[in-house]
Write a structure and sequence with these properties.
Layout (H helix, E strand, L loop, with lengths): L2 E12 L6 E3 L2 E3 L1 E11 L4 E6 L3 H16 L7 H12 L7 H21 L3 H4 L6 E7 L8 H12 L4 E5 L4 H15 L4 E5 L6 H13 L5 E2 L7 H7 L7 E3 L5 H10 L5 E2 L3 H4 L1 H14 L3 E2 L7 H13 L6 E4 L4 H4 L8 E2 L2 E3 L12 H7 L10 E3 L2 E3 L11 H5 L12
Parallel strand pairs: 6-7, 6-13, 7-8, 8-9, 9-10, 10-11, 11-12
Antiparallel strand pairs: 1-4, 2-3, 4-5, 6-15, 14-15, 16-17
Helix pairs in contact: 1-3, 2-3, 3-11, 5-6, 6-7, 9-11, 11-12
């Protein structure tokens, strides 16, 4: 089996105005994600996903990685990971290049599983055909009663855990927490995302309310670089701290472990460097007595990749499933993600065990990953480029009093 060529697919979806949601970063208007398909000379195709700037991912994969990878055996996952890392280390290590590397790594694991006739989770040492999953939504509402209604919908869809967003203010946060707990009852779980908006003192106050309402974890109360605040809060909060969605590679997660900053690591294969790095980070967490709960916000390919890692590690808790009406979660696969009694079903098909829905790809394909319409894309924000300032020439000076100049006349 040899790599023939690599396909990069950038997707964009715009929420209708009535479905846009408000969160700490503003009002989310649209979503982006990037998929890769690694085509081989045997006809096998491996699929991966990367959650970063679409243009940067495309540039790294098509402009540098593809030339190096053509003719190589994709089943040699570890060697190829190392070579891609060395190729981009001088400008990578964290961020878009590292995430792009991870998309190919995930596709290689998919191909290795297909070649061996085994699911990825079994290649990683695990055999569980289903993993716990939680609904990720419960964004800011002007009336917290709407949170109760939404929580009930998640329960009706088969979820037994769900995550809410905080960081709007002391009164709102407390009311939202209490409302969700009442809505889901004593036998289900909720998590709280702090949206990186607290001081240590403020986080302790929120943590007290979370503790009283038996929250499953308290996520990202601080910015990812602020490990001192995490370390100061952990152990005194009375609720487990979770972070890691903004971290890259095993070295980054080792730093979270070394500083004793969190109780739960949230590596994401579509961001942190692929299945390889998510799995190694999860195992490092296990060795340190910490739990693992992968972040996912981008697409169903990333959900499935993270779920295979979760199924294979001894310290896995649950995997995240976006429930904001994102078609890259709901419509991207020919067989949509199935949640039954709180468990995401993985099945026993080889590799990742998924097939992409070509109709969804055709509908949302982004023609130019460097020409992204202005909008708030949740984790990424794009604005229209400014109109270049032009110095008036003789013709412009002569016509400056004209009531209207047609575009392009100067």
């Amino acid at each position: 089996m040899r790599i023939d060529h690599i396909e990069v697919i950038n997707l964009r979806f715009e929420y209708p105005p009535e479905r846009r949601f408000r969160y700490a970063g503003g009002i989310c208007t649209a979503r982006l994600t990037t998929l890769v398909r690694v085509h081989t000379d045997t006809g096998h195709v491996g699929t991966g996903a990367v959650y970063t700037h679409p243009g940067l991912a495309t540039l790294v994969i098509k402009g540098q990685f593809e030339q190096m990878l053509r003719g190589r055996d994709p089943r040699d996952v570890e060697t190829l990971w190392r070579e891609m890392y060395l190729l981009t280390r001088w400008y990578g290590r964290k961020g878009a290049a590292h995430s792009a590397l991870g998309a190919l790594d995930t596709a290689f694991w998919d191909l290795r599983g297909q070649a061996l006739g085994k699911p990825v989770r079994e290649l990683l040492g695990g055999g569980k055909p289903a993993v716990p999953a939680y609904a990720s939504s419960l964004l800011w509402k002007d009336d917290v009663a709407e949170l109760a209604q939404e929580a009930e919908r998640h329960l009706a869809r088969g979820f037994r855990r769900m995550k809410m967003r905080l960081g709007r203010g002391e009164d709102y946060d407390a009311a939202a927490i209490q409302t969700v707990r009442r809505a889901i009852g004593p036998d289900n779980d909720f998590m709280a995302d702090g949206s990186m908006r607290y001081s240590v003192a403020q986080a302790r106050g929120v943590a007290a309310v979370l503790r009283e309402n038996r929250a499953f974890w308290f996520e990202e109360p601080f910015e990812p670089e602020d490990l001192d605040s995490y370390a100061a809060l952990r152990g005194t909060a009375g609720v487990r701290l979770a972070a890691g969605e903004n971290e890259f590679g095993v070295p980054g997660f080792r730093e979270l472990i070394r500083t004793r900053s969190v109780d739960i690591l949230q590596a994401d294969a579509s961001r942190c460097g692929g299945i390889t790095e998510a799995w190694l980070s999860a195992m490092a967490a296990a060795d340190a007595g910490l739990a693992f709960a992968p972040h996912t916000w981008s697409d169903a390919v990333a959900v499935v990749a993270n779920a295979h890692v979760l199924a294979a590690v001894p310290n896995g808790l649950t995997v995240e499933v976006d429930q904001t009406g994102n078609p890259f979660i709901e419509d991207l696969l020919t067989e949509p993600l199935a949640i039954r009694d709180g468990m995401l079903q993985l099945g026993d098909r080889p590799g990742l065990g998924i097939t992409l829905n070509e109709k969804t790809i055709d509908r949302y394909r982004l023609a130019d990953p460097f020409a992204i319409p202005a909008g708030n894309y949740s984790d990424m924000v794009f604005v229209d480029p400014p109109v270049p300032e032009r110095k008036p020439g003789p013709k412009a000076a002569r016509q400056q009093d004209a009531p209207c100049l047609a575009e392009g006349t100067i």
